Every structure is written in C-alpha cells, then in structure tokens.
Amino acid sequence: MIDLRSDTVTKPTEEMRKAMANAQVGDDVYGEDPTINELESLAASIFGKEAALFVPSGTMGNQVSIMAHTQRGDEVILEANSHIFWYEVGAMSVLSGVMPHPIEGKNGAMDPNEVEKAIRPKNIHFPRTSLITIENTHNRSGGRVVPLENIKAIYEIAKKHGINVHIDGARIFNASIASGTAVKEYAKYADSIMFCLSKGLSAPVGSLVVGSKDFIERARKARKMLGGGMRQAGILAAAGIVALTKMVDRLKEDHENAKYLAIKLKEIGYMTSPEDVETNMAVLRADNLALSAPEFVAVMKEHGVLANAISNSAIRLVTHKDVSKADIENALDIFEKLFKIYGKEMN
Ligand SMILES: *Cc1c(COP(=O)(O)O)cnc(C)c1O
Questions:
Q1: Which domains, from first to last, does the chain contain?
Q2: Model's pTM, two decimal places?
C-alpha cells in the first residue's frame, strides 16, 4: 500500500526507537522527567519563547491553549476551514465554553481587515473577543503557507485590541522550510504556538505548545484537568528530540515529492494545480472523473493507493518520510491506469 492519507502515518525511525529505549525518565507530573524537561527547553529555545509544554496530541495542544487564553462566554476568531473549527469535535465550546467566530480566508489566510471588523466592540450584549487563531500550514487549503506579513498584520491588530493570538502550527516546520522563514520569526507574532512531532517529523506521539512562562503554567494546569498529565513520558519525548533535531530539514523532500506528484498528475489529465503545492500536500479535484471523490478513493484503495477525500469533489494527497520517490512513481502508474477508466474530458 502506498499511503498518501496523511503524514501522521509515518513510523518512528531506528534512531528514535533507540533513543526511546535508552531514555532517562521520571514522573513528569512532578516535573521530574529529565527527557521531557530537555524536550520542552529545546522547543522553547527553537521558538524563542520562555517555556513549552509536551502534550499527547495536537488537539489537546490547541485546546489547552484556548483554555489558557480565554474565559467562558468569550469569542474566538478563526479561519472558517481551520482544523480547530472542523476537526476538533467542537472542543472549544465544550471545554472552554467559548464561541467560534469563523472568517473565510484565502488559501488559509484571513484578511486582517475582516479580522478587525469581527472583533466585538464593548457592548453589554456582546461576547468578549479574547483570542484569534491562525493555522500554518493550512491543512484544508492543501498545506498552504500563511505568509509572515499576514500573521504580523493580524498580530498587530490583535495587540491594538488587547487580544491574544494562537498559531495552530501542527505543520509549522513545513511552513518554515517552504518559506525560508525561521519558526522563531512566526513566534514573534503569536502569544502561543502548537506544533506536532507526530506528523511529518515522524515521532510516534506528541505535540508541544510554546509561549510565556505564565501562559504555559496555565496550559499545564489545563492539561492536567483534561487527563493529559503523563508519568514516565520521557520515552515519548526521546523520540520528539530526534524529531526536532534530525527530521526538520528532510521535509523539503516531501515538498519536492508533492510538487512532482501534482505536475505528473496534471500531465496525465487529472485536475490539480501544481502551482498551489507549497508543502507536502496536493489536492486532486474529481470534477473530470466519472466518480465522486469518496468513490474514487475507494477504487484507489483497491489498486494499492490510500488517500482521503476532503469533500465530495476533492482528494488530498500527502507526502511524507514513508513514501519514497519510487512509491510516487508506482502511484503515478496506478493513477494513469485509473484515469483511462474513469477520466473524462472537460471543455
Ligand atoms: C493534525 C492537526 C491537528 C491535531 O493534531 P492531532 O495530534 O491529530 O490531535 C491540529 N491542527 C492541524 C492543522 C492539524 O493538521
């Protein structure tokens, strides 16, 4: 099987497994796990923030951040296709008692003027706007990079109004590699950032949240409340340290593979836009196929290629460490065969 569903399917490297087996551990709820402490200081220093918190998942990282930034009844401005809005089971409303205020972005980037217009004025009837979240790279738009200038502009508006900014940076290292912008630069314009070790960076489990000492202290308490306080979790952090120190630079291979895949798919006749491929995702539209996106995904699976339909008419293809260039070539042979059966001319 050639698995293009997500970069979450990546398996830990041999080096990670060795580091995990040999990790020094302690009870992290007591703050005594040396490997967790090392990973958290490493993350804080890479992002130029005071502190960091290891969490079991990206979802928990986003949610403890929202809990730490907001009060019940507040409103959170976010992008209408963001992960926090679509894929976190409505957690912000359940856990933090806050209301989402979605704004439609372009390639994942919200217009700063629209963001400013969405901020609630002081009025007895209105909720208080206390947080803006930005997603980079932006998943549902096909791994698009949200430009630094856009983030900066939104951050400056937020600060003018006394509002915090959180970046859902599950794939912030993909954004950094693609744009040549250090993650520290993104972090200058955010009060907190969550990023995942378990996606393209290939660690088996875990994400981190970075921010001020004060914020991380509140997030740590929120993590405990959600049941995310772990004990000898240094076993996991050991893989995370390898992920952060050894696995970032190779993301460019994933980006090259995604670009190549999109270029070749277009040559075959598929509807895809190689020019929109900035990181490790390509979106294939099903409009000129005789099947809907979910139906075509089922056929692909029978032929040995896995992918996810992200709507009735779009399929997302994600490249990662565990798909080689040879796998991509094999997948393209299969795609070519399938296009002969299911493709149709569109004029
Ligand atoms: C994967 C992802 C998350 C959540 O991570 P999990 O570890 O799956 O909970 C959050 N935001 C974005 C943009 C993601 O792609």
A1: 7-246 (3.40.640.10), 250-342 (3.90.1150.10)
A2: 0.97
